Amino acid sequence: AGSFQDAGVIQCAYNLNFPLHTVPAISAQCPAWSAFSVSSPAVVLETVKQATPFYTVPPKAEDRPEAVVVRLYEAHGSTVVTWLQTSLPVKEAMLCDLLERPAAKEPLPLEQQGMRLSFTPFHVLSVLLVLRQ
Prior knowledge:
The chain is mostly beta strands. The chain has two helices and seven strands. It has one domain (34-131): Immunoglobulin-like (Sandwich), CATH 2.60.40.
């Protein structure tokens, strides 16, 4: 009933197409943990991957093996502001293009709520996270 946004169609589609798989492990009590969260149901965190190093001579600042790229998109056809939170030790965050090159001169502010991201309808954003060693 209602719109596809209200019905949770995006989440149901991901659950169907990418089901969680259980792996046997030693019986130990572990606290629940999540590396990332997004504050808006309209934004989908699609990909988390190690940043691709640029093999250039001389090396540039983008050549960071300690970096992770997070790719997100707006799935409801709306304009939305969301917070990306992570439990990873982030030293610096910046928007990047699809080739993982920094898209802005200034890094994203790291706030207590996380990183503030603005989306237009169906917009894709990539965030380069440089982790502390």
